């Protein structure tokens, strides 16, 4: 697959805006692991190889285990994730697959386990990685060979 347009070079102001959003997300009260669970799971759903590669490496550097990373696509069938992480992952899946709607059950579970600020920050984090996935996928951004 050949790389397409490099938006960062053609429209640097667009990337500046995206990085400003990332800066906001970096200051939220979500843990670094929660942020990476969101990023990895949404990227898996969207099939974004570039982002899966980047965020699994970053998660490992933060101390995330191989076992949890490998099981992330089947998180419902494992005991590895906390109730809060499960609510975040369920919301991540439904917001990422927005055309199927966010169920009241999923939303209420997340609202029960997260305060309003955290819930808003989770939703914004999901939106952020979905935007990055769409940039990477539409431009054929490839992970580096190592």
From TrEMBL:
Pfam families: CMD (PF02627)
Alphabetical list of InterPro entries matching this protein: AhpD-like, AhpD_core, CMD-like
Limits of the Carboxymuconolactone decarboxylase-like domain: 12-94
Record protein name field: Carboxymuconolactone decarboxylase family protein
Protein source organism: Rhodocytophaga aerolata
């Amino acid at each position: 697959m050949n790389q397409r347009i490099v938006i960062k070079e053609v429209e640097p102001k667009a990337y500046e805006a995206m990085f400003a959003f990332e800066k906001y997300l970096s200051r939220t009260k979500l843990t670094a692991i929660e942020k990476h669970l969101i990023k990895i799971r949404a990227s898996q759903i969207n099939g974004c190889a570039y982002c899966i590669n980047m965020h699994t490496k970053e998660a490992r550097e933060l101390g995330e285990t191989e076992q949890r990373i490998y099981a992330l696509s089947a998180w419902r069938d494992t005991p590895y994730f906390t109730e809060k992480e499960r609510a975040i992952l369920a919301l991540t899946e439904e917001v990422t697959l927005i055309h199927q709607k966010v169920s009241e059950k999923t939303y209420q579970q997340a609202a029960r386990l997260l305060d309003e600020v955290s819930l808003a920050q989770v939703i914004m984090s999901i939106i952020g990685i979905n935007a990055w996935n769409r940039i990477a996928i539409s431009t054929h951004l490839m992970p580096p060979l190592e």
